[in-house]
């Protein structure tokens, strides 16, 4: 956000806006004014303002901002002084005065402390990402609490304003960002959202991408690697700790260009969101109705759009994946972790029993990849693939519950505790086997070409793909009279070209990947399907290939016997409907 000079925000128009909304009264007043204008103006056709419009499901207070992220270090000048004055008032509320707070902290003073002027310095956020002992520990704990409570109180104020003064009836989400340390600060961030109704996170899935405009564009000369969650399941973007009793959303996400493994995205999000109870995943982004053709990132630069999901393998995989998720075809699992955390543990940044993997944003994070913490938690991150992981705040840690995981986790497979999902990182594959939906997404080779599920068998000669069969009439696949079989592979713009490359990023070991020599153009070129399908349902008698808009394209020859039907998937389609 950019400031206007005539707003008279302390610190001037050229400063960064990050963090200021949580405490600057001028900006908060302007924000309330904007909200009032937005939600109370009546629709000229219906007479109903947005505040009472049932089509507004969710209001998000703010996007990607936090006092527990590195951007807090950019608060300078008058705004820094104002925040440090608030910190002194917070500390005085605990200890009687700023001077007494310093005494309670064991005399731990830092440059910038001015208790006589009612101001206490805020220590660099890096120290909040570390364990603390001795005299500094209490001060850092109270600074952590101050940051978290400042955000919580802002969220509570805006919720009250929306509800009580503007009459907004929609659910409200406070925010969706991350912290400087998922281990030390992640739960404190999530706690600050509890002043509203719904929790959220923004998580993207991508490999390395090196180029002059890597934050927003894919260009000739860029170098990249592709990251597959099938081979590293800790990176599944919905591996999220859910606050017990509260909804959880991903409000931005996608498998980001030029990652070549986007076909796994809808398949995995649908299956594991169903298992763990993630309430929605908002794919980001598209400005087109229907398919987005390969196009410039900004309309004129010779580039390809990076932040899009409207590609054949992502948007094209929606029909079966979305139906399975919305209909609840994959069972919800029993919680594998219910961690109770006292607020004191949040402020002292005590290591939780399990933590989310850090995500990476090229526009906000330093370096090239998300830095993994060396801190070991008690429960491995693969537990997210077994069942829901929950956390309860302001609760007794002694009453935390951890389910035994040995039954579900081995070196060869991670099984959901419902028995319906199996992830095999060593093989790079995942299967879903439920009565109404069965499928596989995998890096196929000769040894793993055939996947036999309860009622369906897939044999793929592609090196990578996502196949799914789903009942369209709510019956189990073996009795269904209408079945959709969907198959996604990989796509690139026409004329896309690349070559092997090795390079060094950030002084770390050399990276092997690919260099883009041509970004190509419209239309998308899709790897042809090479898939054989058999379904144990002899009542099915016809098969029809559909085009990308779901319209009938051509009949597909169907082989039948007393036990099953079988067909060769058309090489130029993504959908076949059997009746």
Model description:
- With 579 residues, this protein is an alpha+beta fold.
- 19% of the residues lie in helices and 22% in strands.
- The chain contains 8 helices and 31 strands.
- It has helices at residues 25-40, 77-95, 98-104, 135-165, 182-192, 264-276, 318-327, 343-347, and strands at 58-60, 171-173, 199-202, 209-210, 217-218, 223-224, 242-243, 248-253, 280-283, 304-305, 337-341, 389-393, 401-402, 414-415, 421-424, 429-433, 437-443, 450-452, 456-460, 464-471, 483-488, 491-494, 497-503, 511-518, 521-526, 531-535, 543-546, 552-555, 559-560, 565-568, 575-578.
- The strands form 8 sheets. Strands 14-15-16-17-20-21-31-27-28 form a 9-stranded antiparallel beta sheet, covered by helices on one side. Strands 18-19-26-30-29 form a 5-stranded antiparallel beta sheet, with no helix packed on it. A 4-stranded antiparallel beta sheet has the order 4-6-24-23, with no helix packed on it.
- Helix 6 links the parallel strand 8 (248-253) and strand 9.
- Helix 4 packs parallel to helix 5 (182-192) and helix 6 packs parallel to helix 7.
- The protein is globular and about 90 Å long.
- The termini are far apart.
- The mean pLDDT is 96.
